[in-house]
């Protein structure tokens, strides 16, 4: 029997790496060796890979979603609020449940919120307050305000979020224009980088390529260690890339994939660990989505038309891919979230919808990466949040 | 080895004899190496021992025989679907009594498919358990001192040692 138990020890990491974070947070209290295992960087990375890549067609589809609601509750009555929730869609009975992340937004009025990520299970939530969140650990950290030069303001800013493996650090980047308050004179664009390790912003001196960023789609593309935006200049469409490791910009010309910018919209995307762009018509009740993939990263000659997705009746704009499940996610004409099976071409409509163009959906990933260090005061940086069923979501009552 | 051999005989750690077809034995790397060994020529009487108890070996062989046709020839999607259902039925067993033994046997016999299946089954069973239930099935004692427990409670509000 003793020999048996010894051998069981060898397989414990393989069993635990298949458990959700919620169970593992509990099981860290089993004994010291389980605690040390669950906290070890090797196990955290093994779990990230194993848990998020397991395939079971009966499992619910989990997404982190964001939408603005005109909420009627709260002290000030009717106001606009941004809600970030964990959405679970059961592909068998097509039911949806929605659990709100009880973040500080729920108590403030918010006009815009954008989710970036996931990056190893961490998400960056950009709004009037900026947060990095690990929803599975129920941890969040409030970012300090980025330091603007005195007596200036900005009109436009573009954000990015990614991981630098070299320093094992998560970075948020902001590209912003700068104007003098007094004279309205424009100063050069600025680049600010926030590092999670140092928990502060720094100004980075670098020349920005003279391109314009088109920031409408909200589909993230952190791939090959770089964050990407859809951009353009006088010569046409391109992708602007920012490498999180060497902190340098790069641009890639996109082949002439759309006949006109008025009729066709474009967005960057990530597809099978490659940089991709999706092109689709702005108007129409039945849309096809052209998927172009840069097969050899940074080689402009390697853009390949991978496939045409659809036609999808009632589709309005793409929300992204759930690659593990072979699904393409779109928003339809009445702002509902719709799944499109890339293999069977089946369309699954959910009861979940956004308002005022606010809907955003990204893949939900579980991760044991903690936003706080064990030896510090838990209140110093990261805080915990709870999750509650969304009282405004009709699907929850069923 | 002679090509006429279709099944081999092995001994469990309890000393019982079991027959396993050659194609099923190929699912395990160590068994496959044994097959290639001269020992399985027709004129050899030596029966190899597998360090797995009889109760567990019966189940492991059952799994191998079921999965061998697909592993050796590839199969259609409907076969894969049927096999998945069979796996679910096959895995309905007591954790401590047999599942852990199968897990360790699959690890020892380098059977990736069975190992993944057993790990996932164990994880699914453990998912909702309390800390004391986990200690019980793994025969683990709580070795945190009361000071350490106090410190962990401060760092992780709501954590429980029971």
UniProtKB/TrEMBL annotation, chain A:
UniProt cross-references to InterPro entries, sorted A to Z: F-box-assoc_dom_typ3, F-box-assoc_interact_dom, F-box-like_dom_sf, F-box_dom
Q: Where is the F-box domain?
A: 8-47
Pfam families from the entry?
A: F-box, FBA_3
The source's domain of life comes to Eukaryota
CDD domains in the record? F-box_AtFBW1-like
This protein is called what? F-box domain-containing protein
Automatic annotation (TrEMBL), chain B:
Query: Which GO annotations describe the biological process of this protein?
Result: jasmonic acid mediated signaling pathway; protein ubiquitination; ubiquitin-dependent protein catabolic process
Q: Which InterPro entries does the entry link to?
A: SKP1, SKP1-like, SKP1-like_dim_sf, SKP1/BTB/POZ_sf, Skp1_comp_dimer, Skp1_comp_POZ
Alphabetically ordered keywords of this record: Ubl conjugation pathway
Enumerate the spans annotated as SKP1 component dimerisation domain. 113-157
Instruction: Say yes or no: keyword Mitochondrion present.
Output: no
Where do the SKP1 component POZ domain residues begin and end? 8-67
Q: In which pathway does it act?
A: Protein modification; protein ubiquitination
Subunit field text: Part of a SCF (SKP1-cullin-F-box) protein ligase complex.
What biological function has been recorded for the protein in this entry? Answer: Involved in ubiquitination and subsequent proteasomal degradation of target proteins. Together with CUL1, RBX1 and a F-box protein, it forms a SCF E3 ubiquitin ligase complex. The functional specificity of this complex depends on the type of F-box protein. In the SCF complex, it serves as an adapter that links the F-box protein to CUL1.
Entry's family note = Belongs to the SKP1 family.
Give the protein's recorded name: SKP1-like protein
High-level lineage: Eukaryota, Viridiplantae, Streptophyta, Embryophyta, Tracheophyta
């Amino acid at each position: 029997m003793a020999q048996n138990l010894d051998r069981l020890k060898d397989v414990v990491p393989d069993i635990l790496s298949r458990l959700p974070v919620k169970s593992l947070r509990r099981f860290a209290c089993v004994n010291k060796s389980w605690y040390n295992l669950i906290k070890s960087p090797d196990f955290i990375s093994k779990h990230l890979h194993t848990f998020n890549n397991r395939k079971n067609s009966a499992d619910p589809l989990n997404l982190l979603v964001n939408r603005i609601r005109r909420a009627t509750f709260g002290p000030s009555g009717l106001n606009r609020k941004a809600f970030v929730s964990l959405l679970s869609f059961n592909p068998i009975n097509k039911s949806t449940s929605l659990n709100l992340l009880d973040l500080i937004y729920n108590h403030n009025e918010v006009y815009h919120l954008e989710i970036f990520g996931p990056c190893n299970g961490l998400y960056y939530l950009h709004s009037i307050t900026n947060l990095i969140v690990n929803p599975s650990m129920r941890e969040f950290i409030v970012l300090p305000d980025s330091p603007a030069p005195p007596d200036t303001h900005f009109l436009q800013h573009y954000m990015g979020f990614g991981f630098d493996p070299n320093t094992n650090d998560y970075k948020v980047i902001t590209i912003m224009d700068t104007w003098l308050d007094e004279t309205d004179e424009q100063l050069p664009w600025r680049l600010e980088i926030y590092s999670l390790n140092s928990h502060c912003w720094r100004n980075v001196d670098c020349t920005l390529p003279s391109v314009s960023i088109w920031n409408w789609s909200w589909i993230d593309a952190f791939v090959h260690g770089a964050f990407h935006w859809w951009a353009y200049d006088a010569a046409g469409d391109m992708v602007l890339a920012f490498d999180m490791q060497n902190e340098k910009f790069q641009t890639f010309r996109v082949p002439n994939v759309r006949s006109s910018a008025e009729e066709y919209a474009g967005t960057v995307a990530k597809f099978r660990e490659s940089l991709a762009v999706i092109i689709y018509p702005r108007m129409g009740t039945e849309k096809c989505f052209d998927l172009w993939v840069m097969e050899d990263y940074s080689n402009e000659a390697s853009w390949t038309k991978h496939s045409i997705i659809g036609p999808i009746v009632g589709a309005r704009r793409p929300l992204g891919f759930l690659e593990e499940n072979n699904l393409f996610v779109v928003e339809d004409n009445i702002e509902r979230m719709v799944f499109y099976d890339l293999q069977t071409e089946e369309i699954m409509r959910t009861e979940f919808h956004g308002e005022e163009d606010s809907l955003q959906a990204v893949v939900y990933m579980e991760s044991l990466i903690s936003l706080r260090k064990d030896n510090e005061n838990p209140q110093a940086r990261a805080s915990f949040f709870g999750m509650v069923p969304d009282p405004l979501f009709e699907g929850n009552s069923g | 080895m002679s090509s006429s051999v279709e099944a081999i005989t092995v001994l469990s750690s309890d000393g019982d004899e079991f027959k396993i077809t050659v194609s099923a034995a190929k699912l395990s790397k160590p068994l496959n190496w044994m097959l290639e060994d001269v020992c399985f020529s027709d004129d050899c009487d030596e029966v190899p021992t597998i360090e797995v108890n009889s109760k567990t070996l019966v189940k492991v062989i059952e799994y191998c025989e079921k999965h061998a046709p697909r592993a050796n020839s590839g199969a259609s999607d409907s076969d894969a679907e049927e096999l998945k259902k069979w796996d679910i039925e096959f895995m309905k067993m007591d954790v401590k009594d047999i599942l852990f033994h199968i897990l360790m046997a699959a690890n020892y016999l380098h059977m990736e498919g069975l190992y993944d299946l057993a790990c996932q089954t164990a994880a699914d069973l453990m998912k909702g358990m309390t800390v004391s239930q986990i200690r019980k099935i793994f025969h683990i004692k709580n070795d945190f001192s009361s000071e350490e427990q106090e410190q962990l409670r401060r760092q992780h509000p709501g954590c429980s040692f029971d």
